[in-house]
UniProtKB/TrEMBL annotation:
Keywords assigned by UniProt, alphabetized: Membrane, Transmembrane, Transmembrane helix
InterPro entries per UniProt: DUF6458
Lineage: Bacteria, Bacillati, Actinomycetota, Actinomycetes, Propionibacteriales
Residue spans of biased composition, Basic and acidic residues class: 61-80
Domain DUF6458: 1-54
Segments of this protein annotated with the region Disordered: 61-96
Transmembrane region(s): 29-48
Descriptive protein name: DUF6458 domain-containing protein
Pfam families per UniProt: DUF6458
Organism of derivation: Kribbella pratensis
Coiled-coil features, chain-numbered ranges: none
Length: 96
């Protein structure tokens, strides 16, 4: 049963339970509607549980060999000299 079928059962059960006022000697439409609504709610819950099962495995998500290929380590030594980020067109040439 999919979620749509469960919702349809809840709607049909609600209509039978709350909107229909006919009475029969053999069965009660209100009770039947509530039973159908409970079946629809159980179907929705079961559909959700089956669709979202957790897969528990011991296998890592990323293979360690592949991860090692793409690892980036920081540089060994950082430069002590300041880096000039001024655009070339805006730099002034030192006078001689």
């Amino acid at each position: 049963m999919r979620i749509g079928a469960g919702i349809a059962l809840v709607v049909i059960g609600a209509v039978l339970a709350f909107a229909v006022r006919d009475t029969f000697d053999t069965f009660n439409l209100t009770a039947l509607g509530i039973i159908i609504m409970l079946g629809g709610a159980a179907g929705i819950w079961l559909s959700y549980r089956l669709a979202n099962q957790r897969r528990l495995t011991d296998k890592p998500v990323i293979d360690p060999e592949v991860e090692r290929q793409y690892r980036t380590d920081p540089p060994e030594r950082v430069s002590d000299e300041p880096i000039d980020v001024t655009p070339r067109t805006a730099r002034t040439r030192p006078r001689r």
